[in-house]
Amino acid sequence: MHEDAFDNRAQALARALKGVLRPLVRTMIARGVTAPAVYRLLKEVFVEVAERDFRIDGQRPTDSRISVLTGVHRKDIRTLRAAAAEGAAARSAGARRVTAMVSVIGRWLADPGLQDADGRPRALARHGTGDAPSFDSLVAAISTDVRPRTVLDELLRQGLVQLDAPGEQVHLSAEALLGGGDADQTLHFFARNVGDHISAATGNLLGDGPPFLERAVFYNHLRVESVDALEAAAREGAGQLLTALNRAAYAAQAEDAGKADAAHRFRFGVYFYRAPQDASDTDDDSDE
Fold first, then answer.
1. Could you give the CA distance from residue 230 to residue 272 in angstroms, rounded to a whole number?
2. b/e burial code for range 189-216 (CB count within 10 A of at least 16 → b)
3. What is the longest distance spanned by two Cα atoms in the chain?
4. What is the pTM of this model?
5. Which among 254, 237, 241 has a CA at the least distance from the CA of 111?
6. 54, 143, 135: which is closest to 62 by C-alpha?
7. HEC sequence for 29-95
8. Residue 252's closest CA among 237, 242, 241, 265?
9. What is the pLDDT of residue 4?
10. Structural domains present in the chain
11. 220-234, pLDDT tens digit by residue?
């Protein structure tokens, strides 16, 4: 392929990346993250991705090879690799805390033994007796490394559960069904939901394998009242789909438990974005 063709493809990708980066840069500026901090962060990510995804025969790449792949100086690569190893434990601990919280809610929504006759999550006794399901037994089924009282206190703080007047039963609140959470959870899922969405789109762009599901419906020239109605319909339909898929995934996980090849994961997400239309909006009125 001619060198000019590579240049044209790189320029086209750069233009596309600007569209991806604009909302991220808006978030950075709003939260006080400056350009020099982002430059260092980009170096870290370049080194991390080169080390993880560009190995030859499974061998960890040398500093020199990473430098060739990324353009990052070898001295910086050594520093960044050492810092990454030190920070991994702290990041993992934070992720485990959030994962335990959402796993409790997910199982509560999916386990038929924790639902009423209409399929809604039922109130649970805090402690329970015998084999009867309880909040304590639910947490213990998720993890034995965290105390049920700790999980309960955190869920109460976030408004994701409620206690009845005597404090003997725990009720899952509407906020849990709508995906509420504190700042730590919001950041956790900002990274993972957006990251996996971009990973799916990137896989399709690079042609790494079978295409991922990555579609959107978009229209313009609409009144705000019409978008309100469409958003309400999207929220209702998405909630039903996510609840059904959560239950199906919970059943599949139970079926696959203990099997040697049960080493895969998935993430399915939905979103609805709205904004006033301006001259830079060039999407056609169509399904993409």
1. 10
2. beeeeeebeeebeeeeeeeeeeeeeeee
3. 76
4. 0.76
5. 254
6. 54
7. HHCCCCHHHHHHHHHHHHHHHHHHHCCECCECCCHHHHHHHHCCCHHHHHHHHHHHHHHHHHHHHHH
8. 265
9. 62
10. 89-177 (1.10.10)
11. 999 999 999 999 999
Pick from 145, 144, 155: nearest CA to 106:
155
Which residue stretches of the chain have pLDDT < 50?
286-288
- Whole-number pLDDT of residue 2: 58
> What gap in Å lies between CA 214 and CA 271, rounded to an integer?
12
**What DSSP state is assigned to residue 165?**
T
Q: For residue 213, what pLDDT is reported?
A: 95
C-alpha to C-alpha distance for 176 and 106, rounded to whole angstroms: 9
What amino acid occupies position 162?
A: Q
Which residue type, as a one-letter code, is found at position 99? T
Tens-place pLDDT, residues 173-201: 876 665 556 667 788 888 899 999 999 99
Phi, psi for 160 (deg, rounded to 5) = -90, -15
Distance CA 216, CA 272 (A): 9
State the distance between the two ends of the chain, measured CA to CA, in whole angstroms.
30
